[in-house]
Amino acid sequence: MFTLSKIHSELPFLSRIDTGVVTFSPEIKYCQIMYDSHFYQDALFNQFAIPFPEFLNKAPVKRRAEYVAARYAAKLLLEDEGCYDNVGSNLSRAPIWPTGFCGSISHSGNFAIASIAPRTTTLTLGIDIEMLGSKSIVRAADIFCTPVEKTLLSSCHIAYETALLIAFSAKESLFKALFPEVNHSFGFKASRIRQLDISACRITLELIQTLTPTQTNGSLFYGYFSLQDNKVITLITQNTI
Whole-angstrom Cα distance, residue 198 to residue 152? Predict the structure, then answer.
């Protein structure tokens, strides 16, 4: 799913930074950061020129570390495009992207990832990263999957826990891609998994609720996933025209 163009590190907090493009859509760029929260300091916000939001005042170190790492990933991508504005936050804490860009941010474990595209592509993006290995995903499956979806995922010639995590992540990515238009929360049961193609690393989702006049019951969305070591990354895009 990703074509890597650059690897560098900025020890000790940022142990690895990967940047590149999305293989099937090179106009979409990504930056993935591996960080170590043990080396987190509030001074990193000033060092990276990232505003410290008020809602982090009472947040634990883990939350502050993942926030600054994810926003730094977005900042690197924007600066590479000649944009030096920061990504803001709305009242629901969703990212507000600088004029001329759309994007998405995610973090899990000790990884953060951001993706951006120019508004001229008429795309909106949803990206999500999740850590593999937790058996709790099976216990939680009823929250985000129907019995029909679970049957489909169990027959995908991949570990059932991994298939469930891909499905969960894809629905998270779909939410992020649609939220700028829908502008309100909607649950996992608003969509269903139609297909999980392991060989092509592709996933198809279908809306089973009408969310807006244009995002209606039956609308299909196509995304891709990447299994990297101990994590899964999903990306959903939608065309706004």
Answer: 12
pTM of structure? 0.93
pLDDT digits (tens, 9 = 90+) for 121-134: 778 899 999 999 87
Determine the Cα–Cα distance for residues 157 and 159; give it in Å rounded to an integer. Answer: 7
Tallying the residues shown for the chain, one arrives at: 241
pLDDT digits (tens, 9 = 90+) for 3-12: 877 777 767 9
Residue (of 32, 13, 7, 63) closest to 226 by Cα position: 32
N-terminal to C-terminal alpha carbon distance within the chain:
24
Count the Cβ atoms, other than its own, within 10 Å of residue 24: 16
Task: Output the CA torsion 87→91→126→187 (10° steps).
Answer: 170
pLDDT in tens, 167-223: 999 999 999 999 988 888 899 999 999 999 999 999 999 999 999 999 999 999 999
Contacts of 68 (CB under 8 A, 6+ apart): 40, 44, 45, 48, 50
- The structural domains of the chain, ordered by start, are 2-121 (3.90.470), 129-239 (3.90.470.20)
Measured in degrees and rounded to the nearest 5, phi and psi for residue 5 equal: -115, -20
Q: Which residues contact 17 (CB under 8 A, 6 or more apart)?
A: 6, 7, 8, 9, 10, 31, 32, 33, 34, 73, 76
Q: What is the DSSP letter of 85?
A: P
Residue percentage of the chain with pLDDT more than 90? 80
pLDDT at 240: 57
Cβ-contact 123, 240 below 8 angstroms? yes
